[in-house]
Design a protein that fits this description.
Helices cover 45% and strands 12% of the residues. By secondary structure, the protein is of the alpha+beta class. Among the domains are: 2-76, Arc Repressor Mutant, subunit A; 113-313, Tex N-terminal region-like; 331-452, 2-Layer Sandwich (Nucleotidyltransferase, domain 5); 646-769, Nucleic acid-binding proteins (OB fold (Dihydrolipoamide Acetyltransferase, E2P)), CATH 2.40.50. It has a 5-stranded mixed sheet, sandwiched between helices. Strand 14 (666-670) and strand 15 form a beta hairpin. The longest helix has 49 residues, at 273-321. The relative contact order is 0.07.
Length: 771
């Protein structure tokens, strides 16, 4: 397949032919994106994962196009209506829309007004009008058709008079215009490039649909509408609160049709052929072509909005998965419930559950003292190194309680984002791992493990439940799943996986693996003890040579038989490293330990047809830091003392916070009061910001100023600017917007528009994250 699409992919993706061809071949052979990007750099010309994924996805799209092309050709040939000219056009069609336009006139149709008119014998009259000879007496030409009658599906259709005959002929012509491929292509471009989105509130839904009030009377060019606005309007429609249209200027659309079909627009008397043709064009636009093009334009912008929303979600997910791990520490995990009881669990350095308990620090003096004694005893007896507290209800009170226990300064006390923990605790994975424990124990374990290694724990969740997306339930779900799965696979393989401690959920995301092979690895490990080398993976049932090739480089074995088993050096390159060591008279272990010896290696000496400088440089980097973790070093974070609920906030106060979600219109920040605040895009920086992701990331520590507090609606407006104008609006000079009313609480559209937009669910998304 690649041969016929090579030139197109090269042009679209701005890559070299050899890069595209080599990547396509590797994908066809079953290689994964991470494997190709890491271990086949010489073949692809060092393409990264984004470029390789683009080749993969575009090839799949073109394959689907080819399948549809063959289906259409088969249908036309079976009905014996294929011509050489039509077949040439079908083979030349370079998009699904162009292909469907060509097929439209031949597509088997249900009974239409045009087909009924044809059955009534009105084709000759329609053809007469189509010729546009205004000297022809159409009334006389239509008269012989009066009285024609036909029965279709037990219903009688007839032509009672001349006007009905002309109307039937126009129905035939309107459908002919609608079926013209060239016209459809031009009209499609008009709707997409110049269409305007308008939305109105459904009558009687003003109060019920108040959260969509920004769109009760809204219009803007579709080409300039940001994704979150398009998705917000569509959500309003799906909930029955709004209706919307996407239309270009009607007169312009009419002119497009007349330019194609009307020879002499000036002669437009209704009784002339030209007049009848113009009426047919108007009917085609309003009843057939316009409706079809509006649907296609809406689909186009929905897909575009989906892609942007999915990109935002994927970027946020990547940041969350690659958050700094605390590492293997003896950890207490606490699922806070200050008044109803905190579930605490003790985890060893591998994340294994050792014990669990319930404490009640918020019930009274005696219970608080007992809770304090329990935690102090566990910390002392088990040499606890960290305490992870979930950020749900009661987290700040629990954190304050723990910090007052005067525990050893070496014990890190960290509030952990527990988004999705409740979903994990009720999942099949959690039930399988902890069949004898309830949901609260499982949730506390997940909280503790998230501190130790966020990636290893979060892979157990459906990525959609992690809560760092924008309108994730409104976008095309299969595309969302594909993108998020790609992110998880990329992150897991980028970090690498400890073979002897990883769960089957984590192993399943390793290149070349699946859930069945991952389960077999864990079963083999449980039955035979830890793996001593990568080569011993060959003993695992179901893990063949291809899977080993794809997976081995991403698996780590600490203290394995071969020094490189703990590194990202692929086993296929062990002989090469052995040769390097031999050439300078030392062992591979010596190369790993001694930088002086590594400096003696001249990589150019080892270049071959299979191994080039990119791979050799990767190998030398791994020898310097075998199996290094690419994630940033963990830094403890704590919220401001004494600020635990919204009532503690005051306008103008500056607080430490953590970015929990980045969207197209700004970012949500947790400042420790159980309600995330919104930093509108206009408040993210002292400089102009086009894309919030350029300046903030999920998990980033920030310092935010409280701009506005709405207790009734549980909303907080924040700013990350160094200087914030807090002058009340009513005290500003007339016409001076200032910073406080740029976004109000619903926020503005992209680019800092002063008009509130998008908003129905911006703040409720932050609330839903915690569920």
């Amino acid at each position: 397949m690649i041969e016929k699409h090579l030139a197109r992919l090269v042009q679209e993706l701005k890559l070299q032919p050899r890069q595209v061809a080599a990547t396509a071949l590797l994908l066809e052979e079953g290689a994964t994106v991470p494997f190709i990007a890491r271990y086949r750099k010489e073949k692809t010309g060092e393409l990264d994962e984004v470029q390789i994924t683009a080749i993969r996805d575009r090839l799949e799209q073109l394959e689907q196009l080819d399948q549809r092309r063959e289906s259409i050709i088969g249908s036309l040939e079976e009905r014996k209506i294929m011509t050489e000219a039509l077949q040439a056009k079908i083979h030349a069609a370079d998009s699904l829309a162009a292909l469907e336009d060509l097929y439209l006139p031949y597509r088997p149709k249900r009974k239409t007004r045009a087909s009924i008119a044809k059955d009534l014998g009105l084709d000759p009259l329609a053809e007469l009008i189509w010729q546009q000879d205004d000297k022809v007496d159409l009334l006389s030409a239509a008269l012989p058709h009066v009285g024609a009658k036909i029965e279709i599906d037990a219903k009688i259709h007839e032509i009672p008079d001349v006007a009905a005959a002309l109307a039937g002929a126009r129905d035939i012509l309107a459908e002919r215009m609608n079926d013209e491929a060239g016209v459809r292509a031009e009209m499609r471009a008009l709707y997409i490039e110049h269409g305007v989105i308008t939305s109105k509130v459904v009558t009687g839904k003003e109060e019920e649909g108040a959260k969509f009030r920004d769109y009760f009377d809204w219009n803007e060019p579709a080409s300039k509408a940001p994704s979150h606005r398009i998705l917000a309007i569509r959500r309003g429609e799906s909930e029955g609160m709004l209706y919307s249209r996407l239309l270009p200027d009607e007169a312009t659309a009419q002119r497009v049709l007349e330019r194609h079909f009307v020879k002499n627009p000036a002669a437009a008397a209704p009784e002339t052929s030209t007049g009848q043709l113009r009426l047919a064009a108007q009917d085609s636009l309003k009843r057939l072509l316009g409706f079809s093009m509006e649907v296609e334009a809406r689909t186009f912008y929905k897909k575009k909005a989906d892609e942007e929303a999915i990109r935002v979600f994927a970027d946020n997910l990547r940041e969350l998965l690659l958050a700094s791990p605390l590492g293997q520490k003896v950890t207490i995990g606490i699922d806070p419930g200050f008044r109803t009881g905190c579930k605490i669990v003790l985890l060893d350095r591998q994340g294994k559950l050792l014990a669990n308990e319930v404490i009640f620090p918020g019930r009274g003096v005696r219970e608080m003292a007992e809770a304090a004694e329990v935690i102090r005893a566990i910390v002392s007896r088990h040499k606890v190194e960290a305490i992870a507290i979930g950020n749900g209800t009661g987290s700040r009170e629990t954190e304050t309680f723990v910090r007052k226990l005067t525990l050893p300064s070496s014990v890190a006390i960290v509030v952990v984002n527990e988004s999705g923990a409740s979903i994990y605790s009720a999942s099949e994975a959690a039930r399988e791992e902890f069949p004898d424990h309830d949901l609260t124990v499982r949730g506390a374990v997940s909280i503790g493990r998230r501190l130790m290694d966020p990636l290893a724990e979060l892979v157990k969740l459906d990525p959609k439940s992690i809560g760092v997306g924008q309108y994730q339930h409104d976008v095309e779900q299969s595309a969302l799943k594909r993108s998020l799965d790609d992110v998880v696979v990329s992150c897991v393989n980028n970090v690498g996986v400890e073979l002897n401690t990883a769960s089957k959920h984590l192993l399943a995301y390793v290149s070349g693996m699946n859930s069945r092979v991952a389960a077999n690895i864990v079963a083999h490990r449980d039955s035979n003890g830890p793996f001593v080398s990568r080569e011993s993976l060959h003993k695992v049932a179901g893990l063949g040579p291809k899977a080993f090739e794809q997976a081995a480089g991403f698996l780590r074995i600490r203290d394995g038989l071969h020094p490189l088993d703990a590194s990202a050096v692929h086993p296929e390159r062990y002989p090469l490293v052995d040769q390097m060591a031999a050439d300078i008279g030392c062992s591979v272990a010596d190369l790993v330990r001694d930088g002086t010896r590594r400096s003696q290696i001249k990589p150019e000496k080892y270049v071959t047809n299979e191994v080039g400088l990119p791979t050799l440089k990767d190998i030398l980097a791994e020898l310097a830091k075998p199996g290094r973790d690419p994630r940033e070093k963990f830094e403890a974070f704590s919220f401001a003392d004494g600020i635990e609920k919204m009532e503690d906030l005051t306008v103008g106060i500056r607080l430490p916070g953590v970015v929990t979600n980045v969207t197209a219109f700004g970012a949500f920040v947790d400042i420790g009061v159980h309600q995330d605040g919104l930093v509108h895009i206009s408040q993210l920086s002292d400089e102009f910001v086009k894309n919030p992701a350029d300046v903030v990331k999920v998990g980033q520590k920030v310092s935010a100023t409280v701009m506005e507090i709405d207790m009734a609606r549980k909303r907080i407006a924040l700013s990350l600017k160094s200087k914030v104008d807090l002058t009340p609006r009513e005290q500003r000079p007339k016409g001076e917007a200032g910073t406080r009313d740029v976004k109000k609480f619903t926020g503005a559209g992209s680019g800092g528009s002063a008009r509130p937009a998008g908003g129905a669910d911006w703040f409720t998304m932050a609330q839903q994250k915690r569920k």
